[in-house]
Amino acid sequence: KAGVTQTPRYLIKTRGQQVTLSCSPISGHRSVSWYQQTPGQGLQFLFEYFSETQRNKGNFPGRFSGRQFSNSRSEMNVSTLELGDSALYLCASSLDGQGGNSPLHFGNGTRLTVT
Amino acid sequence: GQQVMQIPQYQHVQEGEDFTTYCNSSTTLSNIQWYKQRPGGHPVFLIQLVKSGEVKKQKRLTFQFGEAKKNSSLHITATQTTDVGTYFCVSGGSNYKLTFGKGTLLTVNP
Question: Percent of chain B, pLDDT > 90?
Answer without folding.
Answer: 81
